[in-house]
Amino acid sequence: MTFGHLVDVDGRGVATVTLNRPEVHNAFNAELIAGLDATFAALGQRADVRCVVLRGAGKSFSAGADLGWMKQAAAFTREQNINDGIALGRMLKALQVLPQPSLALVHGNCFAGGTGLAAACDVAVALKNAVFSLSEVRLGLVPAMISPYLEAAMGARNCRRLFLTAERFDGVQARDMGLVHEVAEDEAALDAARDRFVDAFLAGAPGAMRESKRLIDAVTSHQADEALMRTTATFLAEARTSAEGQEGLAAFFEKRKPGWAK
Predict the structure, then answer these.
(1) Residue 236 has what pLDDT?
(2) pLDDT for residue 1
């Protein structure tokens, strides 16, 4: 049996959360989102956990939305889409507000919602040849629930470019735009970066790091609170139920260009 994600806590208190749907490049579905939400909440309550490392099994970090989940969402009502979006938003928020420091290790594809996971972590390191994309507009959709985290990481100017072009970019470009902090040349270098950041986290006082994270949230605008989650979920619902959203998803599954593509 393949579990949607795996959790391991070592003797030093380093919790490694591994997205474990390699057959679909660790794409999200409702079960994975709910499982991660519960895991992040549980880890946040554990005094023995000193930091959290997030990574993906197989060839990719995360390819965004699962195709089966997308098919289901295409038939959702507006209110169902809002609730679906809020579930994703709460999972990302649970990751962001972990009292412990968090580290994303990105390899392979990191698309759509996967970029939200990377941006919601305190620190992110990517392989040089990792591939990123915010591809939602190609499907008639919008990167709604991940937008607060991407704007905080990259700024509005870069979001305008990437949300609108849906272009692919590599780890170096992701670093230059602020989505990740460092780039690793290969897997060995990615593991070395993990060890270096984990050592730094373990050298800090747990309480002081928790309060430092709360301090950052206190002085940062546009925090993803419940009101903002509902706002972004409404954007998502409107896009999914729109004529463009329906056409974009239909074209994707039928392997054809949508009507607007020139």
Answers:
(1) 83
(2) 39
